[in-house]
Amino acid sequence: MDAQNTLQKAIGLFRQGLHYQALDQISRLLNTCPNEGKIWELKGLVEDSLSWRNTSIRSLETATTLIPISASGQYILAKNYLEIGKHALAKSVFSILLQRQDLPDRLLPAISSYLGQYPELTYLALDACRKAVKRDPGCAESWLGMACFMGKLHYPKEQIANVLRKAVTLDPENRHYRIALSNVLEQSGKFDQAYRVVKEIKTSELNQIPCAACLKKLIRIFSLAEDNTRHEICSNKLKQLQSTEIPTSPEFLPPRFSDPLNN
Prior knowledge:
Elements: H1 3-15, H2 19-32, H3 37-49, H4 53-64, H5 71-83, H6 87-98, H7 107-115, H8 122-135, H9 140-152, H10 157-170, H11 175-187, H12 191-198, H13 203-206, H14 212-224, H15 228-244
Helix pairs in contact: 1-2, 2-3, 3-4, 3-5, 4-5, 5-6, 6-8, 7-8, 8-9, 9-10, 10-11, 11-12, 11-14, 12-14, 14-15
């Protein structure tokens, strides 16, 4: 059996979503090459795709005794530690992962959005966003993520506002960034500044906001600024939401990225 060809075949099957067929090829390989770390790592990744967390952990742990596993493998290992309640181990592995120089850019949004679900790991989610900003300072979404997690960690409002100003500067047409910045400014009592930020949102965009809480804050800002046109648009949209009872979500939260390993 040509081990390299069989390994490539297993990888191909995995990428096609043919997990059981991939595992069959991997089992054959391990019968003849039991000390090949790459095979054990692939096995752990396939098992994770099947939600076999404990089995995946054992395979990835075996791989780590044989080779330095990839950043993707380390990410899956850390996630599964967290999923089964081994929080201390997960925190340790995530901390090591975020220090890796070879950590792919595509993993950073997945790491930050995943860790953001756990209050005790919010600081690591912020670290992931900071790393993303350092690598690509022109990515407005990474700045928004930073601001979100800074807010959860109770950073000073002015620091958060400065980060959001950067996001607005990078993507001035994005209403989410403007609403996020106005939200922080409104909380700080800076209504004039908040109004100057949100008055740049197109009226057609205001009518698309699905968040009742955001609309209420905008109504307050437009009311204080005596901007009757925008006040009326937001009020009518709020009434529409309330009458149809559409579930809403805050506009200022960064979107959750899909896990790139599953794409």
